[in-house]
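Example 3.2
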Amino acid sequence: MIYEVTPVPKPRQTRADVWKKRPCVVRYREFADRCRELGMMVQNGDRISFLIEMPRIWSAKKRAALDGQPHQQRPDLDNLLKALMDAVLPEDCSIWHLGHVTKRWGAVAAIIIVPAGP
């Protein structure tokens, strides 16, 4: 399933974030709400790909060259996965195995979840 939602890393939250409304926390909460709205689900064995949108200021040549290539910058893969798991699962302790989890450049931002086979 392809979900057109911009992946967001999980921020470190403090008690003050209840009233402080830091931009990173607001962005994460909007991401979590959107994931639940789309009905995203993660189960054992799923393969997950995070597509990070390429900057619009890049040339068409550079965009074509990097489309689908590994994204080796921030945000970190583990923080993206943590944000997704916390957003869509009430308790993510039930997940003990995932297939490949990747982070790549893409023309549009999205999260692709491929369910595990039988």
